[in-house]
Design a protein that fits this description.
The protein is built from six helices and six strands. The protein has 152 residues and is an alpha+beta fold. A hairpin with a 5-residue loop joins strand 1 and strand 2.
C-alpha cells in the first residue's frame, strides 16, 4: 500500500503543480487512496520531495534536486518498476509494471543518461530515443547497473 501510494504521489506531482499537502491528500483521495495528512507528511519526507518555484511566486512539490539525481530513491524506483528492456535500432523500449512508466521515464530523464535524448511514457511502456543505434546497449547496461545498485 505504501509503495503504491508513494508511486501515486510521484505521478501526481509530475502531472500537477501541487502546492500543499492538503491538495496532495485530496488528489490521492480522488485516486482511491484513503490516507491522512500525517501519512502524506511522512511520504513527502521519505521521498525527499522538495518545493520548487512555479508561476506567480508560488511553489510546488518536485522530485529531488539535480544534485541528488543519482540517489538511492531513483534507483529504487527503476528497480521496482522496470520489467524488461529491448533495443530496436536507436529506440530502447522499457516495459514497467502497470502505472509506473511515467514515474520511471521522469527518473530516466532527470538522470540525464549520456546518449539518451528523451523519453515518452504510456501506462506501462517507455520509449527512449538514443542519439544513435550504437549507444543503446551502453544505456541498457547503465540502467541495469542502477537497478542492481538499488538492491544493496
Amino acid at each position: 500500500m505504501k509503495k503504491n501510494r508513494q508511486e501515486a504521489i510521484i505521478e501526481l506531482i509530475q502531472k500537477y503543480p501541487i502546492e500543499t499537502q492538503e491538495e496532495l491528500l485530496s488528489r490521492l483521495h480522488e485516486m482511491g487512496f484513503q490516507t491522512t495528512q500525517a501519512t502524506i507528511s511522512r511520504d513527502i519526507r521519505e521521498l525527499e520531495l522538495t518545493k520548487v518555484p512555479i508561476s506567480d511566486g508560488k511553489q510546488a512539490y518536485s522530485l529531488l534536486s539535480r544534485q541528488d539525481k543519482d540517489n538511492r530513491k531513483y534507483r529504487r524506483i527503476l528497480s521496482e518498476a522496470i520489467v524488461s528492456m529491448e533495443l530496436a535500432e536507436n529506440m530502447l523500449v522499457i516495459k514497467t509494471v502497470s502505472g509506473m512508466a511515467m514515474a520511471s521515464a521522469a527518473v530516466l530523464d532527470a538522470m540525464e543518461i549520456h546518449g539518451m535524448v528523451g523519453t515518452i511514457a504510456g501506462d506501462d511502456t517507455i520509449m527512449c530515443v538514443m542519439k544513435d543505434k550504437n549507444i543503446g546497449k551502453t544505456v541498457m547496461t547503465e540502467i541495469e547497473k542502477m537497478m542492481k545498485n538499488a538492491e544493496r
